[in-house]
Amino acid sequence: MSTAPTLVIMAAGAARRYGGLKQLAPVGPDGQAIMEYSIYDAVRAGFGKVVLVVRREFESTFCESFVDRARGRVDIAFAFQEPDAYVPAGLELPERPKPWGTAHAVLCAKPEVAGPMAVINADDFYGPSALAAIGEFLGALATDDTTSAAMVGYSLSNTLSDHGTVNRGVCEVSDAGQLLNVVERFEIGRAGDAAQFQDPDQGAQPLPLDTVVSMNLWGYPPAMLEMLEERFANFLAAQPDASTEYELPTVTKQLMADGKLTVRVLPTDERWCGMTYQDDLPIAQARLDELVTAGVYPELLW
């Protein structure tokens, strides 16, 4: 059996649509950030460590907000996503003011991860059963398993925002529950009793509300980090322009196509809430208040 899994939290985003440091926006009754609930759920699900991938200048802010208190419950480490991290020496690249995307963020956590890992966004609420499902999957991985991965699949209807459109990874899933493909759809919003997305060529296109979507809750074997590093070097060798990003869903799909990964979809009925827009804050606060009142979470987490 594998060692206790690590939870990698991607918290270095710029939050252009939200404005401000949405990763630490107060949603809980005592001002807790959304990621604190994910950490709490991960501890309950058997995770042994948390790695926060942040911008270096915000380390002290995270510590003051909750990390110093939460470290009494779980091992928490920082990793810093910087543009030159894991860039091969001597490689000439265009000047880039920001890091290289979500796969690069996970790669930056490599020194702090020693076993299987789950990956989440800092500003998404996933729900306790979702973290429990991915924790159970990772906890059952054999130590020599290099190919088995998982993704928690949400119903689109449980992930929409009432204050604007969202982008989602729309999933194609086999009858056996294996992920076949993920296609990014943009500007998804409600449209009567269904939803629709904007296709760049065909305009508005319908999308059923029960469509399975990815919210970037992934589980990977330890070998994933080596594969991310190897493919990052290849990605950079192709001389990407300054706006191109090294994205986790894209790399995962490439590894699936190459026979390096098989991804099991773990369905969940959890209801997503997140911080895409400023107007999402009171909705997230109401959702967490509801869960605290129901006894799912204590009022004080740490």
From TrEMBL:
GO terms for molecular function: nucleotidyltransferase activity. Residues 8-60 form the MobA-like NTP transferase domain. InterPro entries: MobA-like_NTP_Trfase (IPR025877), Nucleotide-diphossugar_trans (IPR029044). Keywords: Transferase. Pfam families: NTP_transf_3 (PF12804). It comes from the Bacteria. This is NTP transferase domain-containing protein. It comes from Aeoliella straminimaris.
